[in-house]
Design brief:
The chain is an alpha/beta fold. It folds into 2 domains: 209 residues, Rossmann fold; 58 residues, Alpha-Beta Plaits (2-Layer Sandwich). It contains 11 helices and 13 strands. The structure holds adenosine-5'-triphosphate. Adenosine-5'-triphosphate binds next to strand 2 and helix 1.
């Protein structure tokens, strides 16, 4: 596994708040998502990896060097959560200005095609909608032809069309062999884009692995079907959670075979049954509930 970035026993404190507590992570080549509740420490981890903040203690290595060094920063692209684009510049001026800072930039016009910027090319940034601004921010992160791109909640608040356009652009970035490190609270987005996940809880790493590993590690399967009325006890015996979803019922079960067998044996007239691995959202929620010992954010 090629590692593109690494935190080694990194602690970051803001006054008495311990935002990251001796965190060690190796970010592999590809698309990795850093997940966790609000305030878990995701943006702090990204900022440190992007060279925007220094850790209080511990070691950071990105693309084989120090992310604060010019040599490494020239190979990074950054799309932070809150970005102040120069208000009075047009989209074209912004991208040409940024491109001029790099030795081997992507042509701004190529980014215009990829991110559907033609219609807003001569508009001032200050007049753009939220979705249009996001596209310009992503273009700004890519214009330097980076090897590693940081995307902090890239599609929060976007409509479906804008989100799909950004997803396609991010997939293209990954297909070109660039690595991407993103944060998101949207699990379908993470399942679509990321191959690896790092889950942070209370400033510490609680889970790490491929999306499939994290989903499998929780030891649960989903059995979903249309069933009439309450289910007999043998059907629910292996279920750790039962959720009605419209006309359907979801059983999160430790033994999907036994659950389906019980439906048949007890003559429950089910329709349109689906047996699947649990999704990332359920896997992370279940793992968090199984480990209530996750320390809340501590203060120094
Ligand atoms: N500049 C700062 N000064 C003081 N405290 C900070 C600062 N930045 C972050 N924190 C605190 O550090 C902790 C981690 O914050 P961080 O922004 O890294 O979390 P996050 O996981 O990115 O959250 P969110 O999902 O809400 O964006 C929080 O308790 C936050 O209040």
């Amino acid at each position: 596994m090629e590692v593109v970035a690494r935190l080694d026993h990194v602690t970051k404190t803001y006054g008495r708040i311990v935002a990251l507590d001796a965190v060690s992570i190796a970010i592999p080549q590809g698309v990795t998502a850093i997940l966790g509740a609000n305030g878990a420490g995701k943006s702090t981890a990204i900022d440190i990896l992007a060279g925007l903040r220094r850790p209080t203690s511990g070691r950071v290595e990105v693309l084989g060097g120090d992310p604060a060094s010019l040599a490494v920063r020239a190979r990074l692209g950054l799309s932070p959560q809150a970005t102040a684009l120069p208000w009075r510049l047009t989209v074209a001026e912004t991208l040409h200005l940024l491109a001029a800072h790099y030795t081997d930039p992507i042509a701004p016009t190529a980014l215009a095609d990829r991110l559907d910027l033609a219609g807003i090319w001569d508009r001032r940034n200050g007049t753009l909608s939220g979705g249009q601004r996001r596209r310009v921010v992503l273009a700004s992160a890519l214009v330097g032809n980076p090897d590693l791109v940081f995307l902090d909640e890239p599609t929060t608040g976007l409509d479906v069309e804008s989100r799909d356009l950004l997803w396609a652009a991010i997939e293209k970035v990954a297909a070109e062999g660039r690595s991407v490190l993103l944060t998101s609270h949207n699990m379908p987005e993470v399942e679509r884009l990321a191959s690896h996940v790092v889950v942070i809880a209370g400033g510490q790493v609680s889970q790490v692995g491929s999306v499939d590993e994290v989903c499998a590690n929780v030891g649960l399967h989903l059995v979903e079907a249309e069933v009439p009325g309450p289910l007999p006890e043998p059907v629910t015996a292996h279920a750790v959670r039962i959720e009605p979803v419209g006309a359907r019922t979801r059983l999160y079960t430790t033994d999907p075979d036994a659950t389906v067998r019980a439906l048949v044996r007890h003559d429950v007239p089910f329709r349109a049954i689906r047996v699947d691995r649990v999704g990332l959202e359920e896997a992370i929620r279940t793992a968090a509930e199984a480990k209530p010992s996750h320390e809340p954010l501590r203060t120094a």
